[in-house]
Amino acid sequence: MGRGEVHALLGGNGSGKSTLIKLLAGVHRADPGGTITVGGVSTPAERWSAEEARRRGLHFVHQDPAVFPGLTVAENIAIGRGFPTSSGGRIDRASMRRRTLEVLERFHIHAAPDTLVAALRPADRVMIAIARALQDREGAHDGVLVLDEPTASLPAWEVDVLLAALRRYAEAGQTIVYVTHRLDEVIDLADRVTVLRDGQVAGSRDVEGLTEVGLVEMIVGRPLDRVFPEQRKQVATDVAMSVRGLAVGPLRGVDLDLHRGEVLGVAGLLGSGRSELLHALFGDLPVTSGAVTLAGRALRVRSPRQAMKAGLALVPEDRGADGLFPSLSVRENLSASVVRSYWRGGRLRHKAERTDARALIAAYGVKPDSDAPAAGTLSGGNQQKVVLARWLRRDPAVLLLDEPTQGVDVGARADIYAHVRAAADHGTAVLLVTSDFEEMAHVADRVLVLREGRLVAELLAPDITADRLTELSYLTTEVPA
């Protein structure tokens, strides 16, 4: 890597990206045989450490930047260097504030030192973490900055802000290693790309002249004719779920019909009420008013347990906090939704549970292909496959999907949507929420647009496009649904 180069590191879930980053950070110790060279100085990989990484100028900002929302910008910046003190040993806040202003100006961050980080935009929080990591360098261009999925949880307009900042840093000479699943960002930002597959380098080349299709083929190791399954040519007419006048949180009188075998998308900006809609239907949020029918019968659920009993399933947005049991094994995660079926005579039939788990692992392509590891040790894409398999094994009447491919690589994304479409083909009605409008345009048979808690438009394939969904989500004048 050259000075000022943005080098993208790509690969499918489980390809070794996270392991490589942890080796570079000194979190993991490498096996003997390799070397790590920084600034022309080589070190045996097995002797590399966190202290060595810091000494050589490697800085790391992870997917969930370690900022402290309850502290000010100045306090967050100071944590990286240490708090200046006066002669009496007390924190010198005037000095801390002056130093913070210098850092903010150098990194072009539009924030005040005394502002709480909780009040900042997500992109600014990431930039605060970057500035804290690089503040002691002579300029914004020494050492190597390693960014691990920095845009995974950012909406599109925040991504643009962060990418613009990274371009400025690179132009000033900062070398950046950029890990992402978003291929458009690679095309837009990176100079070179290296792809890992099964723990080995599958290819490395300049980004110039490379297309997203070419990147996909490098990642999966084969031509990928379709990332997304084929949409339905006609919308089904058999109503699985009907919602009338639903009000909860920001939602105000939502009406919709969801058909059997249909993938119905719900598009909207953050705060439009899209996630609240799913959680209300699943009994996870108290409904203010409205009526829901399932297969023609009134549905009244006040808890997820009742929703599950009625035939609903929810894959939540935050799989780590809400969808997974990280400390339990893959087998236990897969059986959690049907665990009662394994009880006989007061004992759990572990053999049957293990047999079923292994069959699901094979069917969903979970890696590693073992039911024993703790689910939290799997890569993001494989965790999501486990969550999806757990719900689909129940053969739900309605599947609620909230950001099902967030932080998931393109190969796993294709696998996830193939299973979702297969479930729809067998009659499951799917309600899909995703902030990736390009993905929505390829996956959904029909899309409803939410704006400020109201449904304002309906689109049918092939008229569903990312540009049209963006336009309808932002419009301030009403558009007939």
Automatic annotation (TrEMBL):
One of its GO terms (molecular function) is ATP binding. PROSITE patterns: ABC_TRANSPORTER_1 (PS00211), ABC_TRANSPORTER_2 (PS50893). CDD domains: ABC_Carb_Monos_II. Keywords: ATP-binding, Nucleotide-binding, Repeat, Transport. Residues 1-223, 234-477 form the ABC transporter domain. Gene3D superfamilies: P-loop containing nucleotide triphosphate hydrolases. InterPro entries: AAA+_ATPase, ABC_carbohydrate_import_ATPase, ABC_transporter-like_ATP-bd, ABC_transporter-like_CS, P-loop_NTPase. It holds the Pfam family ABC_tran. The keyword Metal-binding does not apply. PANTHER family: CARBOHYDRATE TRANSPORT ATP-BINDING PROTEIN MG119-RELATED (PTHR43790), GALACTOFURANOSE TRANSPORTER ATP-BINDING PROTEIN YTFR (PTHR43790:SF9). This is Ribose transport system ATP-binding protein. It comes from Nocardioides ginsengisegetis.
